[in-house]
Write a structure and sequence with these properties.
By secondary structure, the protein is of the alpha+beta class. Helix content is 29%, strand content 14%. The protein is built from ten helices and eleven strands.
Amino acid sequence: MPPGTGTFGRVLLVRHRGSTGTQSHFAMKVLRKTEIVRLRQVEHVNAERYILSRVHHPFVVDLFATFQDSLNVYMLMSYVPGGELFTHLRRAHRFTPDVTRFYLATIILALKYLHSFNIIYRDLKPENLLLDSRGYLRLTDFGFAKIVDDRTWTLCGTPEYLAPEIIQSDGHGKAADWWACGVLCYEMLVGYPPFFDESPYGIYEKILNGHIHWPKTMDPLSKSLVKAFLNPDRTQRLGNMIGGPQDILDHAWFRGVDWDALERREINAPIVPMTSSGDDTRHFLAQPLPPPDEMPGLLREEAPATIFERFDPISYQFLEF
């Protein structure tokens, strides 16, 4: 039953009763209502459902349905069996520039698509990037995603990937996602993020100081790309200038990338996870079964329903857990 657990919920692998083939298995995100309310995440959960229900892109996970009962809210999504990019990166220690280029290019196309709808993602990291059976990335976990016309001021995300303007509460927008691309590019090439410390505040201090260690193994062109993403002045940051995302696609580091063929998934991926069936979970860490009182449909308790917008009443008869 992997795939995993989170702060106030878990993801279950489920099967559509009576279905066969590649679309018979799904990932179902199960979020406990009382924890959502306690952690003040109602707005984020509703935003995740709203955004995922309106986007469709080859490098973004698909949302098929949402439900609720008195205990939980549920999101039924495509099951992506290849595991997290984090797992594959740790296994390899670091990626070559060619491997990094392939995966960073898919991320850029996904963000470019989201930004065209004024959606900022705000939680880019290897743990939120899943490999499908062909080795292509799918962006998942839209809990911090938000539709923003200009700027927003909420402090959210993972410390190592936060842009300076988020830390300084100076208002942030699409440029924060491009900063995170720079952090991720560095991490894939080097094996660890450019800013790390034992405490979040230590990480924030290093981000604001802007000091980055550049390993000798990093070639000048890769360094120029990362530096362009990690420009503390967001008005001069790659992807956020007058040319927008096209400036990224035109950067010399991406020379030779056929962006249209990549978006059509016509290029062979550098890592193709071994999978044997639609319910193969070998690329995810084994998770204990949830206690009986957390299994969907087995407990009823009073919890607000109206605050979770458009989560329909759940029907269990077509799912197996």
